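quick q for whoever's on today - can somebody do inverse folding on this one?? i tried earlier but teh output was garbage lol. tokens:
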């Protein structure tokens, strides 16, 4: 099952560029469907501050500080998002540009990211991703 899912993810990634004809078209998903009890709620991507992993589950947090369970992995979520709006900070977090309030340097070239609404755990961006994060923030 794992290999089948990985194959499907890679197949979807390969078909995305072929469907977008122009470079000005956003390639990201615009609405995420989330569950709250028995209700299904459509959440626009602009209302999502970040996606995060807590324990064995993935969640998304809105700017209204509401958290919703996400049934997809963060890799699957990342492949559906517009790279101009969202950045994969580390294995546990995908953050939207508007949610980044500030960042400060840590030892060995790492960065500590502060988001709004605040996260429970400190967000550390690795030395390897720090340069691309800075470039992404300047867009």
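ok took a stab at it. sequence:
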């Amino acid at each position: 099952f794992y290999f089948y899912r990985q194959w499907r993810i890679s197949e979807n990634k390969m078909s995305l560029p072929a469907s977008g004809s122009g470079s000005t078209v956003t390639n990201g998903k615009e609405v995420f469907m989330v569950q709250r009890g028995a209700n299904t709620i459509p959440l626009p991507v602009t209302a999502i501050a970040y996606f995060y992993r807590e324990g064995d589950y993935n969640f998304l947090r809105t700017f209204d500080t509401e958290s919703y369970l996400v049934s997809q992995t963060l890799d699957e979520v990342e492949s559906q998002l517009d790279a101009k709006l969202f950045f994969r900070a580390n294995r546990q977090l995908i953050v939207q540009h508007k949610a980044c309030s500030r960042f400060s340097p840590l030892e060995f070239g790492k960065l500590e990211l502060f988001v709004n609404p605040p996260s429970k755990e400190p967000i550390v961006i690795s030395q390897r991703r720090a340069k691309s994060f800075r470039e992404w923030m300047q867009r």
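fwiw The radius of gyration is 16 Å. also The CA atoms of residues 9 and 135 lie 27 Å apart. so keep that in mind when u check it
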